[in-house]
Amino acid sequence: MRRVTTVVLSVVCVTLLGVVTNVATGALPDGWTPHLWLAWPALAVVVVAVMVVEIRRARESAPVTGVAAAHARRVLLDRVRRYWISSVLDRSLHQEARIQLGVTASADDRRYPWTLRATHRGGFTGVLDGGASVAGLFERLDRAVVILGAPGSGKTTTLLELARELVDAAGRDPDVPIPVVLNLSSWATRRLPLEQWLAAELTERYGIPPRQATAWIEVGAVLPLLDGLDEVVATRRDECAAAIAAFHARQPLTPIAICCRESEYGELRTGLPVYGTVTIQPLTRPQIERYLDRSGPALAGLRAALAADEGLWEFTGSPLLLAIMGLAYADGPGPADGPGGRRTRLFARYVETMLRHRPHPAYRPDQAVQYLTVLGHQLSKRQQSIFVLDLVAPTWSPFWIGGADLLSRALASAAVGGLIALLGAGLLGWPGLVVGLAATTLTMLALAYEDYDDLELIASRERRPENRAIRVNWLTGTADELRDVAGNAVVGWTTVAAALLVGLAFGLTDELRGWPGLLADFAYWLGLLLATLLALAVSRAMLFDLYLVGPPGGAPRREIPSPALRQRLRFAATGAPLLGLVTGALAGLPVGLARTGADGLRYGVVVGAFAASYLLVAVALGPLAEQWLVRRRLARDGVVPRPLRPFLDYAVQCLFLRDVGDGYIFVHRELLEFFADRLATSDARALPRP
Question: How far apart are the first and last CA of the chain?
Fold first, then answer.
């Protein structure tokens, strides 16, 4: 349907192009001569429309070339390697603990201490020994597996070990599918078919163009490594498993690996379409004792803590907790009592020890704990694992009174009105000041009714409005928004009244009387009315489109504007000139017909500038001002520091977080839950006010 619409538009525009060209260059009646200039702006508008239609059609039909696909493949492999292998796997808590504590590896030391037990549904069972590879086990299980284990057992690390070997293989052979690590926790926000979700994640997390991502998935060129099925909200977990099963039924030859906690996997009502399972076995006491003995004096503090509190042995079966215990008790046993159970006291001791060993002059330990508590609480509340800067919202502060949104809209409206008033006064005299006043009023009112420019909505990442289609067709989308804007009683009648006021202002200064004067007044009114309605409709359609589509991955690591707002700014800066040209022509043509070409041109410039400015403000500059105000207020309330990214990098140094692309994850879900549990109330009122 979209291609049919594009073809029809192309034919219509080409036809109009010929007509307008003939009008502009042909012989016309003498009465038309004063208005001949109008054909040239009309010709410019039609030419631009033809170019846009043809470019869109070319993009839809152009094949993905081999050179572009090969380049995109290299980029994706490099980003998977940097994001997950170098930043997460090579700096896993197990490895970092060994480096921090000075544990030297012996000749027979395995990379990781746990044991993998594999089971194939055809009857094969086996244990992965130190000389085998995870990729080899993956092949024996027919390249469709689920990795199971207890919390902290090493599921993600095993998945990333598989990713390392598969990335190396894909780098050597261009026909091997590209392994891509993705976290399933974000699936529940949109609940798309898995093919669409994979394509969206490739674009949002890795910066792959949507057409390329879709093409890869259709031909099975992407190997999904899906982490965190247990992190999908419980009410959606079976639905997610069903989406994975449906994807595998449609593409049975596409390899796949999924990670899940063993208990949550056993509760699924929908089975996963895998040929085998890899279960991570808990560490046994002899394994732990051997590990402690080989470590020598590096783990003397942990050995002393285990001797002082026999109950700590219950945690040593988890490699994650074993590494945390080694770091937490590096200085010897701590207090045997304290708030919470042993696990809570263990994590508290770990956080305290790491902050003491790696102090930072800008963040006191109590401040760092408070910031991490807010971060963990917000991620847990939104059922997310990866933190990106777009998640920061006004409601993070318990002391928030909601003024940033109103203030940013007021400032944006005043800026638009002031700009148009200055331009109008210079080109149109004092009636131009009235155009500026109308621009201020209409901008303020329209911003009050916008749905998708609110930071809280952007932060929620709930990009699935139930009453709207997911795919946006710009032609029909703009038409729908135009109908909504015109049908809105408040916005519609205010636009009519503002246009009438502008027409009256020009009428008072016009020397024309009778019907010519009324016709001129009507032209000013009609021009502003049409331009305003179109500007509001296009801006709302663009906002809705950008709200559904997440920001591309691989964005520059800057805070303001955040990735989503940076994308909005780029789109708005591209669309504003075109919108200004079209709306300026709509406003200037009636005035040029009723008065002179110069009058129409000046009026078109002012109204076009208003439309372009409104689009910039509504789509990007207004939310950008709100973001700056919100960050400033959150820092003043002591919720998160400003700037935030240096603190996040400090938390990475302290082994609390890992950076993944343009986002951050906690080194383990249990540490996230520890910080999230520090705030029992959903509105975070447990935070102390600075």
Answer: 58
The candidate with the shortest Cα–Cα distance to 358, out of 335, 332, 337, 330, is 330
Q: Work out the burial of residue 454: count CB atoms within 10 Å of its CB; fewer than 13 is exposed, 13-18 middle, 19 or more buried.
A: middle
The pLDDT confidence band at residue 681, using thresholds 50, 70 and 90, is: very low
pLDDT, tens digit, 9 for 90 and up, residues 596-655:
888 888 999 999 999 999 999 999 999 999 899 999 989 988 899 989 999 999 999 998
Residues composing the chain: 690
The DSSP H or E segment spanning 669 is helix 669-677
Q: Which residues are CB-contacts of 89 (< 8 A; sequence separation ≥ 6)?
A: 157, 160, 161, 163, 164
Nearest Cα residue to 297 out of 36, 438, 103: 103
Cα–Cα dist 81/86, whole Å = 6
HEC secondary structure over 515-528: HHHHHHHHHHHHHH
Residues 266 and 151: their CA atoms lie apart, in Å, by 14
Quote the CA–CA distance of 316 and 306 in Å, as a whole number. 10
Q: List the one residue out of 343, 319, 284, 359 whose CA is nearest residue 97.
A: 319
pTM surpassing 0.85?
A: no
Instruction: State the residue for tokens 């399972």.
Output: 277
For the chain, counts of helices (H) and of strands (E): 27, 9
Q: In whole angstroms, what separates CA 373 from the centre of its chain?
A: 22
Give the pLDDT confidence of 283-304 residue by residue, as tens digits. 888 888 887 777 777 778 888 8
**Tens-digit pLDDT profile for residues 368-403:** 999 999 999 988 888 888 888 888 888 888 776 667
Q: Where are the alpha helices (DSSP H) in 386-513?
A: 403-428, 430-448, 455-460, 474-487, 489-509
Tell me the sheet residues that pair with 224. Answer: 180
Q: Which of 417, 414, 433, 437 is nearest to 425 (CA)?
A: 433
Closest by alpha carbon to 248, among 153, 145, 131?
145
Q: What is the DSSP secondary-structure string of 300-315? A: HHHHHHHHH-GGGGGG
Q: Which of 292, 284, 295, 344 is nearest to 317 (CA)?
A: 284
Contacts of range 416-425, beta carbons closer than 8 Å, 24 or more positions apart: 416/440, 416/443, 416/610, 416/613, 416/614, 416/617, 417/441, 417/443, 419/609, 419/613, 420/606, 420/609, 420/610, 420/613, 423/605, 423/606, 423/609, 424/606
